[in-house]
Design brief:
about 220 residues, alpha/beta, Rossmann fold, seven-stranded parallel beta sheet, 11 helices, 7 strands, globular, binds adenosine-5'-triphosphate, ATP binding, ATP-binding, nucleotide-binding, NAD
């Protein structure tokens, strides 16, 4: 079995150092071969990006240019319809042989997983790596509580694993909680700062900042 590939889906409107640090932390902690950044075309829950698909992909290319283990994967942009994660994972799974896929998910997204399109099939194609801040990192036991739906509790009782090693042993089907340091940054905050003409220097790579300025993205008049 080859080393697993990490999958980070998102709007990336724009990509920022919170995304990049998370990818590098998980690359190391889970001993992944690479992380694929997959920009969404049209969000299933109706979030409309400000920048175009091409601009978001280009900002990702600029951000990842010096990170050989981080790659942009534009398959959702090429489909040009609502981006369902299960379809993305099925197509990746068919492409890579003998290679586990690890989908990164925030805790909030994980708790709502049973609302996703064809969510029961996700674990046929990938492992789920649920990420949260160290100070509030959940254990599997914490999630067996009333705030988590019975469906998710059942999923956990069948699929939870305790260590990253399990992700290397089979191609799909495990749920791992991984605690990593995260940075308190969101693309929403960055867009708001730009709208108010505040600097976002050092919160995005310099090449991304240059691109944003050149294309006058996220300004008051954009
Ligand atoms: P927005 O503010 O526009 O909703 P965002 O900053 O949350 O955007 P997304 O493109 O939606 O960025 O995020 C892609 C993925 O990265 C999501 O799984 C999200 O939870 C995660 N993520 C976003 N910001 C951070 C951060 N600071 N640290 C770790 N993970 C993050």
């Amino acid at each position: 079995m080859s080393k697993p590939i990490g999958i980070l889906g998102g709007t990336f409107d724009p990509v920022h150092i919170g995304h990049l640090r998370m990818a590098l932390e998980l690359l190391a902690a889970l001993e992944l071969s690479e992380v694929r950044f997959i920009p969404v075309h049209t969000h299933p829950f109706g979030k409309t990006p400000v920048a175009t698909p091409e601009q978001r992909a280009e900002m990702l290319r600029l951000a990842l240019a010096d990170l050989p283990q981080c790659k942009v994967d534009t398959r959702e942009l090429q489909r040009a319809n609502v981006s369902y994660t299960v379809e993305t994972l099925a197509s990746l799974h068919a492409e890579v042989e003998e290679t586990p896929l690890c989908l990164f998910l925030g805790l909030d997204a994980f708790r709502q997983l049973d609302g996703w399109h064809r969510w029961q099939e996700l674990l046929d194609y990938c492992h789920l790596v649920v990420v949260d801040r160290p100070d509030m990192s959940p254990s599997t036991a914490d999630l067996q509580t009333a705030s988590t739906s019975p469906t998710i509790q059942t999923l956990l009782s069948q699929h939870a694993v305790d260590s990253p090693g399990a992700l290397h042993e089979q191609r799909a089907g495990c749920v791992l909680f991984q605690s990593i340091p995260t940075l308190d940054i969101s693309a929403t905050q960055l867009r708001n700062s730009l709208k108010h003409e505040q600097t976002i220097r050092f919160l995005v790579p310099d090449a991304v900042l240059d691109y944003i300025h050149q294309h006058q993205l996220y300004t008051r008049n954009a």
